[in-house]
Amino acid sequence: EADKLYRLRRKRCRPTFKLEDKELQALLRARLEEGWSPEQIKGRESLEVSVNTIYRAVKSGRLSFEARKHLRRRGKPYKRKTRQDGRGHIKDTVSIELRPKEVEQRLDIGNWEIDTVLGKPGTGGLVTVVDRKTRLLLAAKIEDKTATTVQAALIRLLKGVECRSLTTDNGKEFARHKEVSAALGVPVYFAHPHSPWERGTNENTNGLIREYLPKGIDFRVVQSDDVLRIVERLNNRPRKCLGFRTPKEAFFNLPVAFGLTI
Asked: Does 85 have pLDDT greater than 60?
């Protein structure tokens, strides 16, 4: 009798599976399929489970669906990029060292970081523009990475949008920066060579885009509507740095759109 009582108590004292609720698992599945991280799900939906609990459930396979494949980082090793010189020199650039401190401190909306996302050589890519304060993304498909094409795309994306400054790298595709500056009426600052951390907002966002458009993709099969869907998805994804508001909510000062709780 004592042994039976011990086994019964031992069985009861083990921790229960906190994500056993079917409605909760349905919410997790929906958000993971939208590309949200467990931290974003926890922060936005105010779940009564920790981020580590969600990760453990996903990786252990205890959920009722194959959740691991939806994690944005699936244990991929970090690869150090080798430096490549010889990109040429762009004339009349203004160093990032001269950029106002309020831009560095992300005090105002309208200070954008710009870059390109390219696919298979000769198939084009994207021009990407990200607001430093709110992380709002704008992107346009380009047929090539010539300075003229990139100039036209940047002006088209930012014309009529709140714009105070642009920060870019030293790629030759930004050689027509003076024309862009004149058309938009804003200064263009150049980061130091081989210093992607000085444009970390854009670099991080380009990494998110790569989840949908991986390196080596043939951009001739990518339609403008596909790009718009990706941009819309990322702009509606809550960010921890924004207090789990979305970039769209932060940029346009919109009320929180979801607010669902379990």
From this structure: no
